[in-house]
Amino acid sequence: MQTPTVSTSMAATPTTTRATAPSPAKPFALPRQCGNKLSSAGNRRGSAGVAASAKKKNPWLDPFDDGADEEFDYQGVFSGGKQEEDPRPPEDPDNPYGFLRFPMGYNPELDSLASKVRGDVRRACCVVSGGVYENVLFFPVVQMLRDRYPGVLIDIVANARGKQVYEMCKNVRYANVYDPDDDWPEPAEYTHQLGVMKNRYYDLVLSTRVGGLGHALFLFMSSARDKVGYVYPDVNSVGAGLFLDEMFKAPTANLSDGGYHMYKEMLEWIGRPRNNVPQQPTPPLRVSISKKLRAYVEDKYNRAGVEKGKFVVVHGIASDSVANMTSRGDKDCLLPLEHWAEIVKGISSEGDKGLKPLFVIPHERHREDVEEIVGDDANILFITTPGQLTCLINDSAGVVATNTAAVQLANARDKPCVALFSSAEKEKLFLPYVEDKASCTVITSATGKLIDIDVEAVKKAVNDFEPAPSFALVTK
User: Fold this and answer.
1) Where do the record's region annotations for Disordered lie (predicted)?
2) pTM (2 d.p.)
């Protein structure tokens, strides 16, 4: 390929205006070449380069521009044939609406018009705000989606602590780690999570984060068909509803203040009557555990010195760890170790029952504190995930805990439970179904402070625990 040249004739000086002067011919724009062509730069800028230009080129403008490459094909990468395409749906010549034609390289996902009209959901994404407690109470929302839209694929977006909750839920396909509560996320994490949500073609995106315009834009950019979420109850929600198909105005800025029914508006919207389908009833809280996880936890608590069905789970030790599994709607929900040491005295380890208290600590640094206050012979277990806690509760004789996730998990598995609350108002807020649970005993503080709870009443309730029956296979 020959490099075009520019005439260097200076025959006449232009006397007309600049608008009428003919523009000089420009050489054909060529891409810059680098690499092994630098070694031959001096040869190409020899006499031929001087003859081609009256003015020597300034090498500082583009030191990597060595001119045209004789070995490069400028006609096009795919000039020799067609580009390979993705498989595409076949064209239907009998279709009265014409052929299905799509641009080259595109493989669209087809959905029937009837499915669009009915509002069916095949893929849903749930952005869950909060920690372990909030994610545990989100299980009825997931089950409502499965009951309303059988066969739906559900993905979860939550922080690292919330992601661990969904090892107990069989209805979730993917659980992605992303903190929706972070007001200033890292740009790389933000764009990555947004790209993941866009590439999965969700029909529905639900968000439990109480947000404003910024979070609404995040949901809008996911390109889902329906965007649903909570917004601020004040002026901070201005403009957010323009980017959401359905919005719920939260009672307060903290959604956890609603207690057990914190997602009531979302549950009613999912199960709403439409298209001759009646109102879907709200399912109760249920969790599942796998055999593999159960075997792992059984080996773990056996090493801690307790046997299956012969220990009582103690949960709710005062700690500043983020893994204490408390609710954001109840700040006063942890008891000091001194109170727990007095409570476990009611659990006899030498009597006929043979029960032992098992202290569940959220961090290893609390082990020495328990041994110092309760005793060196105390049974202590460090639990890392909510799934392990559920297996531990399932194999225990009962649970004594404050308003943490352990209370909800015990009631979900129908295990005997003694729940400690700072006030009767908190009890009605977080355990509205306690009247239907004969296995759950609630003890509240008369002063409105958990530290003033009646320890003797707690010890009496704990003494009613019986060892869980053990089953053995009888073979002939």
Assistant:
1) 1-96
2) 0.75
